[in-house]
Amino acid sequence: MSTQAAPDTDVRPPAGSQPRPWLRRLWWLGALAAAWLVPLLTHLVGADWLLIPAFLAGVVGLQRGLPTLLDRLVVGIVQSFGALCVAGLFFSYVGKLHPVVLAGTAFTALVAIATRRDWRAPRTHRTSDILVAAGAAAVAVLTVVPFALRDFGGRIGIVAGGEDIARHTTLFEQIGRFGGYAFLHPPTDATMLPPAETEGIRAYPQGIYYTYAVVDRFLRSSDTSSADPFTAVNTMLWLYVATFVVLALVVLWSAARVAGPGARPLAVTAALAVVAAGVYFGEPIAVFVRGYPNELAGLAVAAALTAVVVRPLTNRVDQVVTVGLLVIGLSFTYHLFLPYAGLLVLGWAVRDRLWRSWPAVVVAVVAAPIAAITPVGLLHATTAQLLTSAGTALPSDKPAALVLVLLAAAGLVAVGGLRSPARRMGAFALLAAASLQAAMGAWQLLTIGRTHYYFDKLLHVLVIVALVLMGSLARLASARLGSARPALSRSLVVTAAAVLVVAGFFVVAGGRNHAVVPSYGVRLATGIDRGSPGGGRDAVFLAREYPVAANSVEVDLMGDPYRNFFGTLYASVLQRNYRYGHDWYNFLNPSRGPRTIADLEQAVAVSPVTVRIHVADPKARFLAGPDAPTNAEAAALLAQRHPDKVEVVTHPA
After folding, report:
1. CB 5 within 8 A of CB 261
2. How far apart are CA 210 and CA 217, in angstroms?
3. H-helix segments, 180-282
4. Less packed terminus of the chain by CB within 10 Å, N or C?
5. Is-contact 397 512, C-beta < 8 A?
6. End-to-end CA, the chain
7. Element (DSSP H or E) covering residue 75
8. What is the pLDDT of residues 593-625, one digit of tens each?
9. Which range among 25-29, 60-64, 573-577 shows the weakest confidence by mean pLDDT?
10. Is the pLDDT score of 365 beyond 90?
11. How far apart are CA 326 and CA 367, in angstroms?
């Protein structure tokens, strides 16, 4: 079976019909002028958001080696993300995040590319594109509706449980204030970040947060960061939702690409149904509800990289540039996945002898040092012990991951699949991801005696690779559906039953050892699991009541321990006071063990700013001990002992 799409040849008109040279030069001058005048006009009328689809339309028309609109759109999105990560190194110094500067430069680059190739509309679609779009739309509805039905505090509550989203939001806002990457500024300038974490967070991979900051400026048609923290955080949350939807789209498209042009529509439908179920009811949704935008973006890039390496674009230059941008995007987003990307690209380079291709050599020489920026920048904050550290990620569903890997492997090797170069490359990708998983597991078992946080993180990329390679199952199903007519109905029944069993496996349960019933996806879609809406609403209430907190910190003791914990954390984010709220949310974390009145008094003593304690429920208690006071009693006692440091605010219960 063919593994390559039909060549996208550049058919030009006869020489006699070419426009005169002076007319062509005039056209290019007009295009260059429009590249800057149009962004200037949209900025003046407050419609900069229109430039985002306009830019993508330009990218779509200039693609080669991709026949349909969906092909070009998905590849254009991931290419643009990688290019923006690179461009941010320049725009962090020049132009900052000004929409006119960013858009003018981007459109100028498109005009320059258009001097070498004509803009051409893609073929509308093929059957698999409709299936991919339908699957992505279903995931989008299931993801967007739970957020749309909740108020602002409720939306915060959905992702509050992971707590890391607080740091991600603060970093997004810090980048907005800098007008560029935070790691390009001295640690002392990162005033929104806590001193204890400034160096580590400042150097954290920032590609997705920089992208959010750019999109935020275009959505608001503004050349400054948002003065309203509520708008900024709400925008961040919706961009986070969009990131998950894009992940679903990229994974489904990648699986359809791996299936190849010869797969029957019914077979592709069956495979994509399993992939969609795996995305929304499997590991990716567990990542989503814990608040990891960088990891979701990294998984999307890893999926696209797997697809274009298994079945490369027919245009060699576009292929090597795309792979280079994807590797850079992965480095600037979630470099834990870089070893997988390195092994995958190495296997592709050996298969195609890329050292003989000068475009590949040039791209490698340029991309390698850029991709090394984030890992090298974090060397001072990284140790081998970090790979055994704990985190707030939900335990991975290892049985479900094993099922996906086995299904992907079956699709790759069945019916003589390894005779195909694409299937062999797919098998290599699956082996590379599984080998890295095994290496991480062995390291953690030898050092701490069990698998932990980063083992689960690596398992996520193995799951994504397996979901992408599930497209190979369409080939197996196509072979069965291509049998004699009497056997066709039996094949349909077998295929439908297999899809229902596997998809049901994800829907019914999830989590550690497939024991969370119903699965995280079902719990999100149905509202069974709302996260911590109480904590989110406390945070919104406190931040609105006390919008200025330069010399104080809000401590939420109005309810149960987890509500207090999340209320304190996200109030500091909304007040842009995470620098001081960080210590208090750590102190209130229920998972850190019981606290006594002496511990609370010590936390007050070391606080560099005034502590404003909020109480409501007179029976609420988080302190340990047989004679431990209630929250209200403890707050009153501290105010009596430290009148110059503690302020107590009592709210209706």
Report:
1. yes
2. 11
3. 198-202, 207-220, 229-259, 265-281
4. C
5. yes
6. 69
7. helix 69-91
8. 889 999 999 999 999 999 999 999 999 999 987
9. 25-29
10. yes
11. 10
